[in-house]
Design a protein that fits this description.
The chain is mostly helical. It is 83% helix and 0% strand. It has one domain. The chain has 8 helices and no strands. Helix 4 runs parallel beside helix 6, helix 6 packs antiparallel against helix 7 and helix 7 runs antiparallel to helix 8. The chain is globular. Required for nicotinamide riboside transport across the inner membrane.
Length: 204
């Protein structure tokens, strides 16, 4: 067991040493944007754009095509989210909303359909070796990002789930620094959920 643990951490260290400058940039800006989002700070959107642009290139290079396409979607939602948060602030509307039972069912259904659809597409038309895992993570992230732009509380629950899935995937793809980033994301998503839930209760 000790030998296995030593080998695991040695692998992580080797991957970190070989990490590119672009991945470092994407990681640092990614961490900052999630931290700002958890604090409901509007600057999370422009910082997120920088991280997104870096990860478009990174994921494409590592044949995570679903996630590469997801970054392009993120780019659009970052612009929209930035606009929407500014507008909501100007209108002094309730900043955070929560899903009802019917909306929960719609979200789960959308994720299941998108996961299978994207997985099948990636399996047939790309050379990725993780089509359905990539498709599922992409689908969950897709829906989570949409909910975040609308300031829906449950976006953080989806981010927690997808972060747990992404960590072993990135280790498998030799993206150790990104795996570390998503471990930090997991903690920030948990904090974000608790903070947003507290704010939502105060205004509900």
């Amino acid at each position: 067991m000790i030998f296995c643990q030593a080998t695991f951490w040695q692998l992580i260290w080797t991957q970190l040493v070989q990490t590119s400058g672009l991945e470092w940039f994407g990681t640092i800006t990614g961490f900052i944007c999630v931290y700002l989002a958890a604090r409901q700070h509007i600057l999370n959107w422009p910082v997120a754009i920088l991280s997104v642009l870096a990860y478009v290139v990174i994921f494409y290079r590592y044949k995570l095509y679903g996630d590469a396409l997801l970054q392009l979607y993120f780019l659009g939602t970052c612009v929209y989210g930035w606009y929407y948060w500014v507008r909501r602030k100007q209108q002094h509307q309730k900043p955070i909303v929560s899903l009802g039972k019917t909306e929960y069912l719609m979200v789960v259904t959308a994720i299941v359909i998108l996961s299978f659809g994207l997985g099948a597409f990636l399996d047939k038309f790309t050379d990725t070796d993780v089509p359905y895992i990539d498709g599922t993570c992409t689908a969950i992230s897709f829906v989570a990002q949409l909910l975040m732009t609308r300031k829906v509380l449950q976006n953080w629950i989806l981010w927690i789930v997808v972060d747990i899935c992404y960590i072993p995937l990135f280790l498998y793809k030799n993206l150790a620094l990104t795996a570390v980033l998503y471990t930090l994301y997991l903690g920030l998503a948990t904090i974000g959920y608790l903070d947003w839930r507290r704010s939502w209760k105060q205004t509900a």
